[in-house]
Design brief:
Keywords: Hydrolase, Pyridine nucleotide biosynthesis, Pyridoxal phosphate. It is an enzyme of class 3 (hydrolase). It catalyses: L-kynurenine + H2O = anthranilate + L-alanine + H(+); 3-hydroxy-L-kynurenine + H2O = 3-hydroxyanthranilate + L-alanine + H(+). By secondary structure, the protein is of the alpha/beta class. It has two domains: 10-53 and 315-413, Aspartate Aminotransferase, domain 1 (Alpha-Beta Complex), CATH 3.90.1150; 78-312, Type I PLP-dependent aspartate aminotransferase-like (Major domain) (Aspartate Aminotransferase, domain 2). It is 39% helix and 12% strand. The chain has 13 helices and 13 strands. It has helices spanning 10-20, 53-70, 73-77, 82-95, 108-121, 138-151, 168-174, 197-206, 226-229, 298-314, 316-338, 365-374, 398-413, and strands spanning 41-42, 102-104, 129-133, 154-158, 179-185, 210-214, 233-236, 251-254, 344-345, 358-361, 377-378, 380-382, 386-389. A hairpin with a 3-residue loop joins β12 (380-382) and β13. α1 packs antiparallel against α13. It starts with 9 loop residues before the first helix and ends in a 5-residue tail after the last helix. The model is unreliable at 1-6 (pLDDT under 50).
Length: 418
């Protein structure tokens, strides 16, 4: 097993003291931490969460009893309603959404396409613009460009600094009587900037448009209140802080006030009001179920339900509090150890405007990332020159974070500055 470096006593004592006071520390034992003995520090929870022990057990039980035991009868036992059932669990535990507005289905890209199309197709005459920022996650930008070409629309781009994110003032200056939809990431994937979702939503509504939030980098690490904020539409993935596993299904949120009016374009049989009738013509199901198209990914929802159960026990307030502590410690260690070695912090220092990860930048960080992986420290790299430090509040200890950044420091001490 790779061993952690010796880092002196001051910061080590601070990390260990934070662990001793951490109310979420006992939950670490519920993760399969010992399955990767070569990993000193896993700092990529903002890309892929660790698996829970319960997930392995529940998957085996599901295959052995529900799938093998019930066979096709599982659909009538309840699988058919899992998109809404698990969607409502998501809404209650992490989204701040009342029942009947969230479903689990498809990938983030597919659900994003469905919701954008539904929004622009329902827009009043003359509303032919979509507003988005230039540093939004690539899949969102690509989908918008494709829909704009399909529907003869214009994308109005807000230029944002990759070291920050979109602001209320920028949105106010960009929306107007031609705005059909504005869409942004709640937490910027590069910088970790936490947008003012409530403020931006209000500004877009004042202009007469709808708002779609991509919650992929915030759900499970940042408090969300979709209903209270007046959000119209939202999507997000479940494989990061929700621990749903590689390629786990995404979720879509359709506010109750828009149900029955906004219609998504992928009219599959599972989104039909009566799917088993299999008759001619398409009639959408009531409520958020109308967002479903094909057969629900039942097996893939099992790990997600395990993740939601742990977050529910922990409580999102405690999860967010620890996330802030972890990123604060990241900033402190970056200032003490890494800034003298030419590393810049390109994430907000104000926790109120920072999500669950911190991005550090130096020109040679692509090569440095490979060296870190070789030494058992696993962050990820994003252009230009950014290493993202993404500790997961449920599975990352303060000592693990300390040890990972100590390895980064030692790697940089052995390299000339670029």
């Amino acid at each position: 097993m790779t061993t952690a470096p010796s880092t002196g006593t001051r910061w080590l004592a601070r990390a260990e003291a934070l662990d001793a006071d951490d109310p979420l520390a006992p939950l670490r034992t519920e993760f399969l931490l010992d399955a990767a003995p070569d990993v000193v520090s896993y700092l990529d929870g903002n890309s892929l969460g660790r698996p829970l022990r319960a997930t392995a057990e529940r998957m085996a039980d599901f295959v052995g009893s529900q799938w093998a035991g019930r066979l096709i009868r599982g659909w009538t036992d309840g699988w058919m309603r899992w998109p809404e059932v698990v969607g409502d669990e998501l809404g209650r535990v992490v989204l701040g959404a009342a029942p009947g507005q969230t479903v689990v289905a498809d990938s983030t890209t597919v659900l994003f396409y469905k919701l954008v199309r539904a929004a622009v197709d329902a827009a009043a005459d003359g509303r032919d613009e979509i507003v988005c920022d230039t540093d939004n996650f690539p899949t969102d930008r690509y989908v918008l460009e494709g829909i704009a070409a399909e529907r003869g629309l214009t994308v109005r781009w807000i230029d944002t600094d990759p070291a920050s994110g979109v602001t209320v003032e920028q949105v106010r200056a960009s929306v107007g009587p031609r705005t059909a939809l504005a869409t942004f990431s709640h937490v910027a994937y590069r910088s970790g900037h936490l947008a003012d979702a409530a403020g931006i939503t209000a500004v877009v509504h004042d202009a007469g448009g709808l708002v779609l939030w991509d919650l992929s980098h915030s759900v499970g690490s940042v408090d969300l209140e979709l209903d209270a904020w007046g959000v119209d539409l939202a999507v997000g993935c479940t494989y990061k802080y929700l621990c749903g596993g590689p390629g786990s299904p995404a979720f879509g949120y359709l506010a109750a006030r828009h149900q029955g009016r906004l219609r998504q374009p992928v009219q599959g049989w599972m989104g039909h009001a009566e799917p088993m009738v299999m008759g001619p013509g398409y009639a959408p199901a009531a409520g958020a179920r109308s967002l479903v198209s094909g057969t629900p990914p039942i097996l893939a929802m099992v790990p997600l339900r395990c993740g939601l159960e742990v977050i529910d026990r922990a409580g999102m307030a405690a999860v967010r509090a620890k996330s802030v502590q972890l990123t604060e410690l990241t900033l402190e260690l970056a200032d003490a150890w890494l800034a003298p070695l030419g590393v810049d912090v390109v994430s907000p220092r104000d926790a109120r405007r920072r999500g669950g990860h911190v991005t550090l930048r130096r020109d040679d960080f692509r090569e440095v990332t490979d060296l870190l992986w070789q030494r058992g420290v696993v962050p990820d790299y994003r252009q230009p020159g950014g290493i993202r430090i993404g500790p997961a509040p449920l599975s990352t200890s303060f000592r693990e974070l300390h040890d990972g950044l100590a390895v980064l420091r030692d790697v940089l001490l052995d390299r000339p500055r670029p």
